[in-house]
Amino acid sequence: MKPRQKAKAGIPLRAEPAPARFQFGGQDFTIVDRTALHWPAQSALLVADLHLEKGSWFAERGQMLPPYDSLATLDRLIALVAQTQARTVWALGDNFHDSAGPERMAPAIRARLDALLARVDLRWITGNHDEDLPDGLGGTILTEEAHAGLILRHRASPSEIQCELSGHWHPKLGVSARGRKITRPCFVRSATRLILPAFGAYTGGMAADDPAILSLTGPGSEALIAGPSGVARFPLG
């Protein structure tokens, strides 16, 4: 039996953060690693905007960036699959920075992807950056998918009336904490839309209250961030 941990005099024990659970479209989700969603009922993970091979895309154009973005992104995803025991991964578009990205993958990076493909049903939903992914990539390539009453696509559709999960906008939120302002990736939720933040290593972000996002989510939308007490909710106007 594991001995109970005791606090040193005057030093409180650090509590484990509460699970960042919330509901959307009648389904339970948990934010994991700040930018991914665990969908327990479907034994699934959802991520958006991996932008794999973005570094090599810039390198071809003479802008040299450290070539470790794809490796870092895939290693994070593999770790989350192990943590959650997910059997399916939905990648919600802009999975590669361009449709030729898979051809530029170094052997070590391709080996990481193959290890992931061997473990899960990887469902690539294409986006505006990677709409022509090659058939030999592995997994299943889709433009969108309906599953368990939810629509999964890359970019939110203004005319969609069903509950929809998407990516594309890379939402982030600036908040004040202990006298300083910090910016964190966030999820943006309304009654019928849930927009995921970017998961990739080389991805920037758009303010969650940008008019381009709020025009889709509408009044009453909120930003969601995983915090020590669970999900922190921030109204977006």
Describe this structure in words.
- It is globular and about 45 Å long.
- Helix content is 20%, strand content 31%.
- The longest helix has 16 residues, at 69-84.
- The chain is built from five helices and 17 strands.
- With 237 residues, the protein is α/β, with parallel strands linked by helices.
- A seven-stranded mixed beta sheet has the order 1-2-3-4-5-6-7, covered by helices on one side. It has a seven-stranded mixed beta sheet with strand order 8-9-10-14-13-16-17, with helices on one face.
- The protein has helices at 54-60, 69-84, 101-104, 107-119, 211-217; strands at residues 20-24, 27-32, 36-39, 44-47, 88-92, 121-125, 140-142, 145-147, 150-152, 164-166, 171-177, 180-185, 187-189, 193-195, 206-207, 222-227, 230-235.
Strand content: 25-35%
Number of strands: 17
Structural category? alpha/beta
How confident is the prediction overall: mean pLDDT?
91
Q: Tell me the Rg in angstroms.
A: 19 Å
Task: Report the principal-axis shape.
Answer: globular
> In whole angstroms, how far apart are the ends?
51 Å
Helix content: 10-25%
H-E order: EEEEHHEHHEEEEEEEEEEHEE
DSSP summary: helix tally:
5
> Strand sequence of the main sheet, in spatial order?
1-2-3-4-5-6-7
- Taking pLDDT < 50 over at least 5 consecutive residues as the criterion, the unreliable ranges are 1-8
Largest sheet: 7 strands, mixed
